[in-house]
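Quick review question:
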């Protein structure tokens, strides 16, 4: 068996085309353009690359962008104050705080300073609570939302399926598990310290790898015919799954890059337009 690739770039392109259409309609109706503000703390090269990519995608679909770059030595209070200014700014529809931030910053305090209506990356405690309770008052975490959208695009059934999520971060693993549980999947959460990880993976109909360890998930662990979503991105364009061996057993698999990553940005921009639309309703 050789797995078919789940082309996140192509699926994201369709989403971006839809977002571009929505931006145009919103501008014609309201006379203004949706705006996404980004907050970046420090000089991490990867973070700067990610923010630049998001700003470029904004430009491509017609969304305005506003950057707030802060020095690495900024305090938590200073970063929170910047977020507070953007919350109060009526021209801003969505706020993205790029993570990770420098270790001395209290990320949770910064995230939770974002108002519900502008939390288009779904990172606040309120967003997590709403996902846990099945409510839709806030926006979903973008990468998990992108994973679910990609599964839907490839007509992968979720109800009753056993999904193993490897990873427990508050912005990826945990919200992904909650969203899949909300779609009636049976979800097992594992992590890098799980004993017998291979056994859990071998029983999964769908594997979501989001642990941040290069090729931690071995190809021989994959159940024949399973669907493999690799949300990891490590140095050298390597995911969390040993791609070649896994592709020999899986039915569908995401490449790295070109799988989950493009979907994350597509969800972010779609939710920014939704935030703008909700302000007008």
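Suggested answer, residue by residue:
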């Amino acid at each position: 068996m050789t797995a078919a690739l789940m082309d996140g770039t192509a699926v994201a392109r369709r989403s971006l085309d839809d977002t571009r259409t929505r931006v145009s309609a919103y501008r014609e109706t309201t006379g203004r353009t949706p705006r996404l503000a980004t907050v970046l703390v420090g000089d991490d090269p990867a973070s700067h690359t990610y923010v630049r990519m998001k700003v470029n995608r904004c430009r491509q679909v017609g969304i305005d962008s506003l950057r707030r770059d802060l020095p690495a030595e900024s305090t938590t209070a200073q970063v929170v104050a910047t977020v507070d200014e953007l919350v109060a700014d009526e021209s801003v529809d969505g706020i993205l705080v790029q993570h990770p931030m420098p270790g001395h910053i209290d990320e949770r305090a910064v995230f939770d300073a974002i108002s519900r209506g502008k939390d288009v990356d779904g990172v606040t405690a309120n967003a997590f609570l709403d996902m846990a309770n099945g409510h839709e008052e806030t926006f979903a975490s973008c990468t998990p939302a992108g994973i679910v959208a990609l599964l839907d695009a490839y007509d992968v059934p979720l109800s009753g399926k056993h999904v193993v999520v490897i990873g427990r971060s508050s912005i990826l693993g945990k919200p992904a598990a909650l969203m899949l549980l909300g779609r009636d999947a049976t979800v097992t959460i594992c992590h890098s310290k799980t004993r017998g990880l291979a056994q859990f993976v071998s029983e999964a109909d769908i594997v979501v790898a989001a642990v941040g360890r290069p090729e931690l998930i071995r190809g021989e662990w994959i159940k024949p015919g399973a669907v493999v979503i690799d949300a990891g991105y490590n140095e050298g364009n390597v995911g969390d799954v040993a791609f070649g061996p896994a592709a020999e057993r899986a039915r569908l698999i995401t490449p790295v890059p070109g799988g989950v990553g493009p979907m994350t940005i597509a969800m972010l921009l779609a939710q920014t337009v939704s935030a703008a639309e909700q302000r007008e309703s």
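Why it works: DSSP finds ten helices and nine strands in the chain. The chain has a mean pLDDT of 96.
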